[in-house]
Design brief:
This protein is of the alpha+beta class and about 300 residues long. It is built from eight helices and 14 strands. The radius of gyration is 18 Å and the shape is globular.
Length: about 300
């Protein structure tokens, strides 16, 4: 295979060498094999908003992805910050002092953003694959998904070091696909509250209960392993990564898709999370930033 053919290509229908196609035969959308995998996936997502597919990556691809992401992790700027679950500083000033949406939680991790990830990496090729996007859409019961247009957040590597964590938050886009490439020595569990908020209902009372540590009955836990894929409705389900302990960092790649084209994150949230914005964010700032079509905070 030529070097050029291995670049991320939204017109390529080849996933051999990346996905374990014997276990997950997703390269033929609409086939009986594909429909069976997707049907099982929808059951899992409907149950709690989260789908975990162990061993999704081909063994060789996992080896390559682990090395590529470990190399990229050196570019991550580790930042410790405190913010609300929305990280929307421009909105929180109008809220009451005791509003749970103003409660600050700790983030201590690093990000490698999309503009830093080469198009010939395993994760970039998977992200752009139309076959993979068709599979994600099928699992979510959608006709199509679109790459998140945000030039920073569409494809990111999250690096959580010893003592780091990513506390409770919601995602801007409807769903995120996560791929673990390195498991930490200890901790780093994925915890979530399925569908804590719903369109036009922020469910502030239950949010407050979770943030006060009074809602163990709402919290689900998943322990991911390298090569595992997760599809998660992060816009509606509050979620976090518990503190990591040990020398080995937690490396996860987040592949962001949306149910409509052109989605770009708000300026204040982008700056709070990644420490910078791009011209694309500034140009998009003129659109409505207080609520999305579903009536929720972006």
């Amino acid at each position: 295979m030529s070097t050029l053919a291995r670049f991320a290509d939204p017109e390529s229908d080849r996933l051999d060498g990346i996905v374990d196609l014997e276990r997950y035969p997703i390269e033929r959308p609409g086939s009986s094999e594909w429909c069976a995998v997707v049907a099982d996936a929808r059951v899992s997502i409907e149950a709690d908003g989260c789908l975990s597919l162990p061993g999704f990556l081909d063994a060789d691809a996992l080896t390559d992805a682990h090395a590529e992401v470990a190399s990229l992790a050196g570019k991550a700027v580790r930042r410790e910050a405190w913010s609300s679950v929305y990280a929307r500083t421009e909105l929180e000033g109008d809220m009451a002092p005791d509003d749970p949406r103003r409660v600050e939680v700790r983030r201590c991790l690093g990000h490698v953003t999309r503009d830093q990830i080469a198009p010939d990496t395993v994760v970039a090729r998977l992200y752009a694959s139309p076959v993979f996007k068709a599979f994600v859409a099928g699992c979510l019961g959608l006709e199509r998904v679109y790459e998140y247009a945000d030039p920073l957040a569409g494809l990111i590597v999250t690096v959580v070091p010893d003592g780091g964590e990513l506390s409770w938050h919601y995602d801007t886009n409807e769903f995120v696909v996560s791929l673990m490439t390195q498991q930490p020595d200890d901790g780093g569990l994925f915890e979530f509250c399925p569908d804590l908020r719903k369109p036009s209902d922020e469910n502030i009372d239950e949010l407050g209960r979770v943030l006060r540590g009074e809602a163990d009955d709402l919290v689900h836990t998943r322990a991911l392993r390298p090569g595992d894929l997760q599809i998660f409705r992060g816009r509606y389900s509050l979620h976090r990564v518990t503190p990591v302990r040990g020398e080995q960092e937690r490396h996860v790649v987040c592949l962001g898709y949306a149910d409509r084209p052109g989605v770009i994150g708000p300026v204040d949230r982008t700056r709070a999370v990644y420490g910078r914005v791009t011209e694309a964010h500034l140009l998009a700032e003129g659109r409505a930033t207080t609520a999305a079509p579903d009536g929720l905070v972006l």
